[in-house]
Design a protein that fits this description.
Structural class: mainly beta
Number of domains: 1
CATH class: Mainly Beta
CATH topology: Acetoacetate decarboxylase-like
Largest sheet: 11 strands, mixed
Number of strands: 14
Oligomer: single chain
CATH superfamily: Acetoacetate decarboxylase-like
Order of helices and strands: EHEEEEHEEEEEEEEE
């Protein structure tokens, strides 16, 4: 029998065709974070047991557009940009587990398959989408400057339907980028059993964080956000009731694994 290799599928004799390379993974990019308050009941319905609503500001949401460049420890992806550059949009809420507070990604769309596979390994519920955000410039007129008055637009679509659109205008520099996405992440890793009988062959509650974080320029500003209905998505159930603030931040971080908090094993056959 052949010995196959690779961090994820497909595994092969060399491991070269694996969708995702071995960790650690390194990320550099820019994030536009829009924080608002929604109905806490809409957040609660997305928190499976044993997670609970956060004690403070339980309806707080961060909707984040991220323009990433990423790579493995070989750094070879940086010379093949199709394998390193991607966009994603994700929504984060806060929750509580055994008295400790965490951030949790409740929706996320990404435009590259390897980024989706990598996120699914981490417990991010990634789906494919069309994600765009205005990029800043340092020369010419075809983009905003990272300075007061700089104005950005952002859109999200999936299955050819517009799901969200936003505008953000810088009003000042900032020493932080909000509070919703500022805690260790807590996620579920799920895989339905092959019998398709309602049971799961993988059912884990995990937590994780990054390392070697490097923070670049950070700005605060005003924003507008619209969320739309779709037959395949439910983010319109998280409609803004009150806008908090928007942020734009340059950031770099690395990731190399997390911790399993709970593991529900399938029954023995």
């Amino acid at each position: 029998m052949a010995e196959v290799h690779g961090f994820m599928f497909p595994r092969s004799a060399t491991g070269r065709s694996s969708l995702v390379p071995n960790p650690p993974w390194h990320y550099s990019g820019a994030l536009m974070t829009l924080e608002y308050r929604t109905d806490p009941a809409a957040v609660a319905e997305l928190l499976p047991d044993p997670l609970e609503l956060a004690d403070e500001d339980p309806g707080a949401i961060a909707m984040i557009w991220a323009d990433w460049q990423s790579c493995s420890d070989s750094f070879e992806e940086l010379l093949d940009p199709m394998r390193s550059q991607y966009m994603e949009v994700f929504m984060v809420a806060r929750c509580k587990y055994k008295g400790e507070h965490y951030s949790r990604c409740i929706n996320i769309w990404v435009d590259r398959d390897y980024a989706m596979g990598r996120g699914n390994h981490q417990g991010y519920p990634k789906k494919m989408g069309s994600c765009f955000m205005t990029r800043p410039v340092t020369v010419g007129k075809a983009g905003p400057r990272l300075e007061v008055g700089g104005k950005f637009g952002a859109t999200l679509a999936a299955y050819d339907r517009r799901l969200a659109e936003a505008t953000f205008t810088i009003t000042d520099e900032s020493d932080h980028a909000g509070f919703v996405n500022a805690l260790p992440m807590i996620h579920n890793r799920w895989m339905p059993a092959i019998e398709s009988d309602g049971s799961d062959s993988l059912d884990e509650l995990v937590t994780m964080g990054g390392y070697d974080a490097e923070i670049g320029r950070t700005f605060v500003g005003d924003f507008d956000l619209s969320l739309f209905e779709s037959p395949t998505e439910e983010l319109d159930r998280l409609q803004p009731q009150e806008l908090i603030a928007g942020y734009y931040r340059e950031v770099g971080v690395s990731w190399n694994g997390g911790t399993t908090l709970e593991r529900n094993l399938p029954p023995a056959i």
